[in-house]
Design a protein that fits this description.
- This protein is of the alpha/beta class.
- It has one domain (about 10-240): NAD(P)-binding Rossmann-like Domain (Rossmann fold, 3-Layer(aba) Sandwich).
- Helix content is about 50%, strand content about 15%.
- It has helices at about 15-30, 40-45, 65-80, 100-125, 150-170, 200-215, 225-235, 235-240; strands spanning about 10, 30-35, 55-60, 85, 130-135, 175-180, 220.
- The protein has a seven-stranded parallel β-sheet, with helices on both faces.
- Helix 1 (about 15-30) packs across helix 6 (about 200-215) and helix 4 (about 100-125) runs parallel beside helix 5 (about 150-170).
- The longest helix is centred in the middle third of the chain and has 29 residues, at about 100-125.
- The protein is globular.
Length: about 240
């Protein structure tokens, strides 16, 4: 984490959902919060609630070349960073295997995610400390017949973060890497036709906030989804295929 009581936190993808709720919570606790998203009006709306606590830049993370330039500018305007949370991501149910839908999820959850994670890791490695966190999903534990690309891209994110965590340990560069692994959270992004143990977004944000403050490596949201993640991971293939 950072070296002062007031953290400088960048949340990539804070227009709505978990990212927005998490940004509001960090700001309410007295921290300086950088926020990004495609919808500038929503970023301005959040910033106007407490202008001294927010800095924002509006851009599309899938435009990776411009995304890095915007992140650099935002970090400079904040005077550095202690924490980066990648909340930009999405998914769709795609029973018909429409390639355009799959391709869009890959562009967002793999290409853009990798660009953002690499930038944050290198930023923190250069300064000698920092915490990189990203919102993945319990869905990344196994494949999904309803949303193949979503589960696959979330699996990619989980494994990529594991690789960065190992890299940070071996390089002794002071970086904490956190996988925020939610089940169902009550946001517009939750499109699964079957949902259970649905967490209110404010509750999810509070649990994530506490986990980040404690430097956790994996945060399950809510905590009981750890059980589902374990079951999914060890579920026999023959049984998984029949689900």
């Amino acid at each position: 984490m950072g070296k002062t009581n007031c953290k400088k936190v960048l949340i990539i993808g804070a227009s709505s959902g978990i990212g927005r709720a998490l940004a509001a919570l960090w700001a309410a606790e007295g921290h300086l919060v950088g926020i990004t998203g495609r919808r500038e009006d929503l970023l301005r709306e959040l910033t106007d609630t407490c202008p001294e606590r927010y800095r924002f830049r509006s851009f599309d993370v899938t435009d990776t070349k411009n995304a890095v330039a915007n992140l650099e500018a935002l970090a400079a305007s904040m005077g550095g960073l202690d924490i980066v949370v990648i909340s930009a991501g999405g998914g769709d149910v795609n029973r018909s295997l429409d390639f355009e839908i799959e391709h869009g999820m890959i562009a967002l959850n793999v290409d853009a995610f990798t660009c953002l994670a690499d930038w944050a890791f290198n930023f923190f490695a250069k300064q000698g400390y920092g915490q990189l966190a990203a919102i993945t999903s319990v869905a990344g534990m196994r494949g999904s017949r309803q949303a193949p690309a979503y589960s696959a891209t979330k699996a990619y994110q989980i494994i990529y973060l594991q690789g960065l965590r190992q890299k940070a340990y071996k390089e002794h560069n002071g970086i904490v890497v956190t996988d925020i692994c939610p089940g169902f959270v009550d946001t517009p992004a939750a499109k699964s036709p079957v949902r259970f143990w649905v967490s209110p977004v404010t509750k999810a944000a509070e649990q994530i906030y506490r986990g980040l403050c404690r430097g956790r490596k994996v945060i399950y949201v809510t905590g009981r989804w750890r059980i589902v993640a374990w079951l999914y991971r060890w579920l026999p293939n023959w049984l998984h295929e029949r689900m």
